What we know:
This protein is of the alpha/beta class. It has twelve helices and eleven strands. The strands form two sheets. An eight-stranded mixed sheet has the order 1-2-9-6-7-8-11-10, sandwiched between helices. A three-stranded parallel sheet has the order 3-4-5, with helices on both faces. Strand 3, helix 3 and strand 4 form a beta-alpha-beta unit. Helix 2 crosses helix 3, helix 7 packs across helix 8 and helix 9 packs across helix 10. The longest helix is centred in the N-terminal third of the chain and has 17 residues. The protein is globular, with a radius of gyration of 21 Å. The N and C termini lie far apart (75 Å). 46% of the residues are buried. The mean pLDDT is 93. Bound molecules: pyridoxal-5'-phosphate (PLP). Pyridoxal-5'-phosphate binds next to helix 3 and helix 8.
Amino acid sequence: MDAIELHDYGRIHAFTNMASRLVGCDTCQSPARLVGNTPVLWVPDLLGQTRNGFWAKIEGANPGGIKDRPALHMIIRARERGELAPGSPIIESTSGTLGLGLLLAGISYGHPATLVTDPGLEPLMANLLRAHGARVDVVPAPHPVGGWQEARRQRVRELRDRHPGAYCPDQYHNPDNVAAYGGLALELAGQLDRVDVLVCSVGTGGHSAGTARALRRMYPDMRLVGVDAVGSTIFGQPARPRLMRGLGSSIYPRNVDYDAFDEVHWVAPGEAVWACRTLARARYATGGWSVGAVALVASWLARTEPGHHRIAAVFPDGPQRYFGTVFDDAYCSRHDLLGVVPAEEPDEIAHPAEREVARWTRCADVTAPAEARVEVTQ
Ligand SMILES: Cc1ncc(COP(=O)(O)O)c(C=O)c1O
């Protein structure tokens, strides 16, 4: 190769600069700028029975996962309203993903964070939170009625009483959690041109409510399909101990927009494990419990909806946090999750109170459970 003359470097630099702009490589002054603009990936029917498929929005491409978006938005809005003074601490209950987002927001805007969690938090996640500067506070026992989530919320209240000036975003009930997803919706609209069906897991209810609300302004007939965990109370099933984290709840978060859903599916852990592992082998892009559950449902919709329907499914995070659970044979065999092959079709119930479900089940009657209505008026 000929030697490169000094003046050529200037031209090469100008060219690479232009090329990196064209392919969308950004230069970020703040970690907050790393969030958003996540890709979508085509995922063919997981059973390979049809040529149909769905588009997965890969939120695991954010530095900490999907919750980077609401964490940043909740902190920015709290600062604007004067609820979070410069340098004041953030205290929040989290099963991990929001914690990472709050640390990103805290580092970007100068706030220390205390994260209240429970013993089910994966050691890798606890270490990750500490590595990014969190004080991790683990509650020792579940609340007799509200389970681990209520125990964590009580601990947050205690800590806030001890630290006046601390801000708790309260992701379960804070409308800024929902509002944070307008950007995700716009990205999806730009990437897919049209969305006929949106499939979202439900934990606090934030991303299903916020993404659907913004997308329906553009596509009023879009259907929203919710995905919950077996043993979660959100859509009116009895509360049971759950292995799956992220999706599901043992309380009734006010951010769940019951009226927005056309149907809900409950998925069991073994079925989610099958879907996560199948995704990993078929598409490389995989993730945790919520990704597996959403992929199972979206893949069924792709098989059963007309082929021209555009289905978007939100994948909230990547697989890293789940190497000791979903992707660990010893863990899965201890919990009887290995060798589970989901049925081709979900079971159906006419109403959530019809019976308690133990495997993948669908219900097209979505209404707020009476207990959720009580919580709303409190
Ligand atoms: C990994 C994961 N998936 C899904 C969800 C549910 O999302 P949302 O709280 O927006 O309903 C969460 C919430 O914490 C999560 O962490």
